[in-house]
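Ticket #4471: complex job returned nothing on first submit. Input attached below:
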Amino acid sequence: MSEWDLAGRVVELVARLGGADAQAEVTVSRGELALTRFANSAIHQNVAESAVEVRLRLHLGGRTATGVGSAVSADGLRALVERVVAATRYTPPDRGWPGLTPPTAMPASARWDAATAEAGPDERAALVRTFVDAAGGLETAGYCRTTYRSVAFANSAGHTAQGRTAEAAMDGIARAGGADGVARHCVDRLADLDGAGLGRHAAAKARAAVDPVELAPGHYPVVLEPAAVADLLQNLAWYGFNGKRYAERQSFAEPGTDQLDPAVTLVDDPLGATGLPFDLEGTPTGALTLVDAGTTLAVAHDRRSAAEQGTTSTGHAAPGSATFGPLPRNLRLVPSGRADAVETVGATTPPSGAVVDADTAALVSRMERGLLVSDLWYTRVLDPKSLVVTGLTRNGLWLVEDGQVTRAVRDLRFTESYPRALAPGGVLEVGRRAVRQPGRFDSVWWEAPSLRLASWNFTGGASG
Amino acid sequence: MTEFDAAEVAVQAALDAGARYADVRVMHRRYESMAARNGEVEALTQDESIGLGVRALVGSSWGFHAVPDVSDAAARDAGRRAARIAAASARVPGPPVDLVPSTPTTASWASPCEVDPLGVSLAAKGDLLVDATRTMVDHGADLTEGLYQVWDTTKWFVSSEGHRIDQHIRECGGGISATSIGDGETQRRSWPSYRGQYGTTGWELVDSLDLTAHAARIAEESRALLTAPLCPAGETDLILGGEQLALQIHESVGHAIELDRILGWEAAFAGTSWLDLDRLGSLRYGSDLMNITIDPTIPGALGSFGYDDEGSPAVRRDAVREGRWVGVLAGRDSAAVAGLDHGGSVRADGWARLPMVRMTNVGLEPGPHTLEEIVAATDEGVLMDINRSWSIDDKRLNFQFGCEVGWEIRNGRRGRMVRNPTYTGIGPQFWRSMDMLSSEIVPWGTPNCGKGQPGQVGHTGHPAAPARFRGVRVGVRA
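Support reply: We reran it on our side without changes. The output follows.
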C-alpha cells in the first residue's frame, strides 16, 4: 500500500473510531537511510535502514494527542488510531489548538534523483575509496550518506499533499601529525559528490595544520570558512528565528529592526534543494527571508506558534516543534556577488596549504592580522536571548598576518554572542561562493560562503 | 513466528549469504512523553515501534541492515542485505576483526519496576505537570515547563554463536523548570536538574521527585537571579553540586574512556580521546579521592541492563582507582583490537541503529564528607549547581561548563547567590585538584547522550556527589 493510501486509510479510521468531530493530521513517511562510515582509512561501520513511520496528531473534544507507529498492517493502523483516540480522552484541554490546514495549493515538488535514492553500498564504498586514496597516505575518517524519503500527508479537513526527496552527503577528515583537516558537502545527486576532491581538500588542510603554536586568547578578527559559518546558522536558526522562542521573548530577533550587518541576508529555503514542499501540518514550504540586508524580517512558525502571534504558519512544523519550537532547517547565508556562483567543493585545481579555495583566499588577503577558522565544535548556548555561545575551533586554525597565513595555531575556546558578532559593522566581507554543509540529520543543511568578521572573542586555549 | 524465530531466520540468512558471524536484535519499544507549559499541557506523544536490526561480519568487514518488519520474509531479506553491505565494506578494508569471547547464554532479564509508568493514568500525569507549572507561574516565573518521558522496551537478541536473550527494560523520569526573562538575558532554575532525573525503574522515581513541592522555590530563584551579581571572575576554589559533577564525569571521563574513541573510530565526528592505551594502568587521571566505576548492575540507574546489545552480561569494573586510569568502556571487537579481554558496554538506540560503545553507569564512589562540611572547610570560593551549558573539546580535555546558579563561599559559609556562573579547565588537571568529596551519592540519569552516525541517543547513569576542586578558573563570559 502506498504512503498516500496509508494516510487516507488512517484518516478514515479516525472518522470511524473518533467520530465526525475528530480532527486528524496524518503523515506517512517511507524511506531508506544508508551511511558508510570510515575511520583509520577503512570502512568500519556500514549501515542501512528501511523505515516507515505513520504519525497521527488528533484533536478531539478540545484535547490533542500525537502517536507514531511503525506497523502498517490493518491491525497496526487500527491500534495506532485507537491508542491516540484514547489518549485524547485523558489529556487536559488544549486551548491553543490552531486547527487544521485547509485544502491548499501546493508548490511543485523539487526534482529528486532516482539514482541517489537507489544507491547501494558499493557506490558509497567507491566514493570512500576515492576520498581515502586522494588523501595521499594520510589517515582519514568520515562518512558517505544517501537518503530517500517518500512522504504523504492527509488531514480530515480534506487537505492532501505528497512529495519525495533524495540527498547525498560526504563528510571527512584527513589527519597529519596530530592535525586534522576537514571537507564536507551536501548535494541532491550522489553523482555530484567528488570524493577525490574532498579527500584532497581535507589532506591539504591537515598538512597545513601541523606544528601549531599557542596563541593568547583575546579578541581577533576572523575569517570563518563555510563549515564554521554553518554553526552560526544552526544556532541562529534554533534560538533566534524559532517562532516559539520569539513568542516567549527568549529570542534576540526583533522583526523590522536593523539587527545585523547590512552584508547579511539569511534565507530559509527548503526547496532550494530536494526538500519536501510541505511540512508536518501540510503547510506549503518555500523560501522565507529571515534577514534582508541586516534587517530582521521574520521568524519561523508552525500553526500553533503562528496562532499565538496572530500570524500565519511559515511551514516549519516538525516532530518536536510543539515543545522545542519551529526551526529553520535549510538556512542559507546569501553570498555577495552573483547569486548563482555556487562552487562544487574540491572540483577545482588541486588545493594546497591552509587556504584551499579562491573565495576564502580573497577574504584572507584583506585581513591584516587575525585567524582563519575552518570549523567550530561542541557549541552550546550560555544564554538563549543574547545567544552567547561557547565552543572550540576544530579541524584547523591559522594565524593570518598581512593577508597571508603564517602559522598553524592550537585550537582555542571562544565565548561569543552570535548576534553581536554579526551586528552592524561586524561583518567586513561575505564570500562569493556558498557551499552546502550537511546537517547531522538528512534533509537539514546549512549553506554559506566564507565570512570575514571584525572580532571574535577567544576566551581560552584548548591545551591549557 | 515469535520474535526469537525472526531473529534466528535473519541470523541464518546472513550466514547463508557469507557472514562468518551475525547477530540480530528484535526490539519493540513504546515511548510516551508529555510536556506542559505555564499550566497547560502542550504536547502528548505516544510512539510504538517494532523492527529488527542485523549485524553481519564478512571477512574483516561489518554490515548492518534494519527493517520495521519481523515477518519471515523481511527477516530473511534483512540478513542477506546486511551481509551484502558487509561485503561492500571490503572495498576499503581494515585490519582483521576478532571478537573477544562471550559465553553463549540463554536468559531473560527485567529491570526493577514498582509502578508501571504506562499504567499511570494520563490524567494523573497531566495533572502533575499542570499543577507544577502553574505554581511556578504563580510565583513569578515568565515561562514554566514540565516534562516526563517513559521508555518501555522489550528486546530479543540472537547471535550465530548461540546467544538467545530477552530483556524488558522500563525507563522513565521527568522534571520542571522556571525561566525569568530580563531585558537582555534569561535566567532559569530547574528541579531536580536541567532536564530532570531519569532511571531504569518505574514511576516511583517521578513520585519521589515531588515536583510540585519545589515549584515555588525555583520560580522565585529564577526571578532573583535576574538581579543577582555576576559570578566573580578569576581562579578560586570550586564546589560542585552532584548533578553538575555527574555531567562533568560524563563529559570528561565517560567519553574519554570509550575505547572506540581511543582507537580513532569516532575521529571525524565525536572525536578521539587524550588517553593512550599504552598508559592504561599507570596514568594519573585525578587525585587519590577519584574512584570511578563502570557499573551497569546498579538497581534503577539509567545505564543499567542485564546484558548489553552484544549479549555480554552486566559486570561492574573499575575505570579509575585512587586516581589511576585502569579501565575502558569496550565492545567485543574494540576490546580485541586493543588486546583487552572484555566488552560489555555496547548498546544501540533502537532496532534501526548499529550497536556501539556506550557509557553504562559511570560514576564516582563516595567520599567521607557532607556538602555542608565541604562548605565549612572552604575559606573562599564558589558553589555551583545544576548544569546550564556544556562544551568540551574533541579529545575530552578542555571543558567549559555553565551552571544555573552559584553562591559565594566566604569563611566557611554560603553567601549571596550569583548569576551566570561558569568554570573552565583541563580534565586531568581538574580531577587532580579534587580534595574533598561528599558521601551524598545520587545516580543521575542522562537520557540525551548523542553519538554516532546516523545519530543515536544514549541513556547513561552517573553516580555523583558534591565535591571541591582547588584553584579553578571561574566567571568566563563573552
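The first helix of chain B runs from residue 3 to 16. Closing as resolved unless it happens again.
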